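Reopening this ticket.

The earlier resolution said the output was attached, but the attachment link was broken on my side. Pasting everything inline this time so it's all in one place.
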Amino acid sequence: MQVQHADRACGRMPHVGAISYPSLEIGSGMNQHEKAEPRIAATSGGLSLGYRLQRVYVRLMMWLVGRLLQASSAVDPVIQDEVAQLPDGFAFAMRVRAGGPGFAMRKQAGSLRLLRSDHRQSLDLSFDFKHLTHAFLVLGFIEGTATAFARDRMSVDGNPSAGMKIVRCLNRMESIVLPAFVARRALKEYPAIGVGAKLWMATKTYVRMLIQLAGGK
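Inline output:
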């Protein structure tokens, strides 16, 4: 995932404590792209079915992204270098607003660990999709994260410097575990990484995820 518009907004976001943060909305209003958005409302008939399918897909992808990020932070030195710069106990979440699907993580023992629930934890940072369809567009690789920020579909709450570190962790994880043709749609710039190195790190990440799942993590 790539966030460039957040960089330009960073100067407006104060670094506060771990209890609460003023919300920073990236972008402003509804532009011509927003008006053309293919939105599926939870109404009735076929549209209601489409919305429910979107919710199932987003929930599944949030589950998968959280566990892949947890696994990659335990085996990938590039992600470990980013995580090392975060304070111990740093917690963040990625979620859909209004109680939608999401996940939360905390830095523990030098890596990122999933939290069982983000609703009872104090967070230092959160990435919030404003609507379920916005999350579906990004997690379905229909729209890149940078575009989602530009079209005001996401907001960021918290320390912008830490936010950029988490974004780089997500970028790295996606560049490793996703097929190259999919990762190029998700990322603004696909990193230079050899096929052998990519396959080796992807294997280590998926194996670690399976080990963690077997251990109930």
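Reporter confirms the inline version is readable. Residues 174 and 192 are 13 Å apart (CA to CA). The longest strand covers residues 102-108.
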